Amino acid sequence: MPSSTQTEKKNKKTTTKPAKPAPSNSIPCSKRGCEIVIDALEREGVDVAFGYPGGAIIDVFDMLNQSDKFEFILTRHEQGATHMAEGYARSTGKVGVVVVTSGPGATNTVTGLADALMDSIPLVVITGQVPSPLIGNDAFQEADVVGITRSVTKHNYLVKSVQELPQLLKNAFHIARTGRPGPVLVDIPKDIQKATLENYVYPDEPDLPGYRVQVKADASNVQKAWDLISVSKKPLIYAGGGVINANAADELFLFATQANIPVTTTLMGLGGFPETHPLSLLMLGMHGTVYANKAVQNCDVLIAVGSRFDDRVTGKISEFAPNAKIIHIDIDPSSISKNVQVDVDLVGDVKNVLQDLLPLVKRCDTDAWIRQIDEWKKQHPLRYNGHEESELILPQYLIQLVDRVAEDDAIIATEVGQHQMWTAQYYTFTRPRSWLTSGGLGTMGYGFPAAIGAQWAFKNRQVINIAGDASLQMNIQEMATAAYYNLPVKNIVVNNGWLGMVRQWQDMFYGKNYSSTEMTRPKPGVDRTQTSPGDWMNSEYLPNYEQLAHAYGWWGRKVTKKSELEAALRECISVKQPALLDVWVAREENVYPMVPAGASLNQMIEGMA
User: Fold this and answer.
1) 3-state helix vs strand vs coil in the chain, percent to 5
2) What percent of the chain has pLDDT above 70?
């Protein structure tokens, strides 16, 4: 259950508006393709790019360090670069930019592209390509990047001439940041980077005849939506990541509080509505609160705001919100009635749609409904067995402690797994763009580089990555990046020696057959057959994160006792350098509540009595 200190968090809100592109140069000039790329980045308001050089992009890199308008961050892996750009984009609202070479450099971005597409993160990824005459000839470091990335980008381009390069770059940034945001890739052959364009002028406008974004909902549908809401007795707002992307948290707050309608958020929507507010039901879905899921199943009108009815939210779709009329607000028309049939669609920018609704809003007759929800909150709070007299560190307690000692405006990132869900449940989110996580793709290795991207953008704010011991190792090489640029990002490792969420499923649904999920080995001389697999006292955890932190020039420490945890955590957060705290937690703790895959939201397993 959230501690009293959690409810004391201030409801401060910070929103960052996307940078507006600078006007084009009005005087034509002669530029090579590589110079056009740099000019485009400057004119699109880019202040940082992430990536890795190579032969097929070396001409662009030859110009990168000559710009005084933006900085380039050399990562240690191209996947790390894409996640850094995602973290930067998610925390600032700007387009994240990646520049990498051809072949393996480009293919290493695929996971990040897929992650950004699923979570609607605006990226422009610029890749080098072999010279145009060699395309299709299996040249050194050639890959069909456009073909490979077609399904994991919002759009992609292979540049075929230097003449079309400026317009395609302009189009790429426009597509990435408008409508439902997403990643756009521009693949530039080496000969086009070297080619010269006479009379170059960067275009003022995109040239996209078939690309139209509807930003205002139909006025009659806005009225229909309010007519449904105004007569409802049990309305519920279900807010997703679209609220964050549209910078619409203020409008959502006004709408909910003026209409007196409770709000539940998705994993990607955390921070879109302050969790300290009485109308907040925290997160819904597979690992959401019992009372949020009960509200969904008993509401009579469900107002989906910038959310896409993901399977981890709905559970068994045929039994989702069975008594509700459904109103769906979304910028993406393809999301409407895709998974759940809706009664009123409001296609448009979430901020605009809420602004159109607000003049209609009056307080709804929801007092009895809210009393019912408050009763569910009392009956089914988030809770766990605290083992008050034990030195054992429970992961839920660790997250609550991080919540208590972190600054009010801290940015929290996570990797993927149990620690991600515990953070979503037990950390108190009160503002948008303070939460970085991989929702749709569930990418292990996302959180740490994403935190680095956010830390670059906000050098004076605390940025904390809460990591699993397995996830952190997916992109652990980026410890060198943080050290090189002296970015004081913090890694809090929730170390249970398992692939934790997979182990939980094996525990609950596969008869405790722990196949390939244990990350530890017995200490020398210990007979594992005589000890519990949950006994970390007899296990060796590899790597030794404390020593690894020191090897990278980080502050590092290991904690195994609850009595030592708070002091170590405070020191970790306060040091002015990258820092890693390796926290050995109870090994076989599970995430509850939980809706089993394919089950109804009514079939939640609460865990403890």
Assistant:
1) 40, 15, 45
2) 95
